[in-house]
Amino acid sequence: MAQLSGIGSLSLAHFASEFNLLLLLLTLFFIYINIITYLVPIYSRRRIYHHHHHHHHHLLGFGMDKIRRASHAGSWYTDNPKKLGEELDGWLRDCGVAQSSDVRAVIAPHAGYSYSGRAAAYAFGNIDPENISRVFLLGPSHHHYTPKCALSKATLYKTPIGDLPIDLQVNEELKATGKFEFMDLHVDEAEHSMEMHLPYLVKVFQGYSVKVVPILVGALSAETEAMYGRLLAKYVDDPTNFFSVSSDFCHWGSRFNYTHYDKKHGAIHKSIEALDKSGMDIIETGDPDAFKQYLLETDNTICGRHPISVFLHMLKSSSTKIKIRFLRYEQSSHCKSMRDSSVSYASAAAKVDA
């Protein structure tokens, strides 16, 4: 019996040591895989950026600044810094809008610059950079479904004409509420709604130091919109904060699955304009419930409906009186037949109402 148990315990001990060895090998293998998956993107990313300002990249152990590249440069807008700078300067000059320190927020489009770059200047041209230290970006999510708002994992947003650091302190404050999730870098880079505002911000804040707080606004319910509005309202009361709300207006045509046409306005593009302008008038009242009602009744394809709604709730819950005024309305083309399609662009400034 003793012999049997002896043999038994011997084989068990033998098995245990083999098992430990196996565990050790597996652990080493996983560590190896982790190092590889971590270092390869860093290496390739560092190679891409090494001819840029590499003082932004610190390899501290394995910790690395996460950089959101200007993923839509070269397609949605030029990646040539000189050309981009001149384009923005031209639009800002031509719009004839004066900077005002009373302007605390803008609503601006996010299409390719050849479509909406000119219209966007009527929003960004209002910004007086003097006293602003951070810009909250509120943009809709086009590809990634989430019922919440998501913060960026990046530490820096790049543009061809300069970079914008993320305000990590505010990110931490927002994270601490437990109401936000974080979007992965690939989600961040796939989304264009906030990126299209960045070159304008870099241009307007040239010579000033400013940080950004990007907030990807998901498919929120009315209650969630109100909740985020209340949560962000305190930031409105700090005059060093600015808000850049990203939205296009009506997407009209069968390719957008929206062909509402009220013939009493005449041509289709006039009907679209009437539809958009009634929405813009409601946004100007600052009433989130009226805006919600308008969307229910018209189903207007305003892609930034959630960011706009959150913003309206923020204004409603803050103690600063701020009034939204639309300054520009354009359409990508004038629809005349049911086969046509267009996207509308509207730019607004939100001003402290004395």
TrEMBL record:
Gene3D superfamilies: LigB-like (3.40.830.10). InterPro entries: MEMO1_fam (IPR002737). The chain crosses the membrane at residues 20-40. Pfam families: Memo (PF01875). Keywords: Membrane, Transmembrane, Transmembrane helix. Belongs to the MEMO1 family. PANTHER family: PROTEIN MEMO1. NCBIfam families: AmmeMemoSam_B. This is MEMO1 family protein. It comes from Erythranthe guttata.
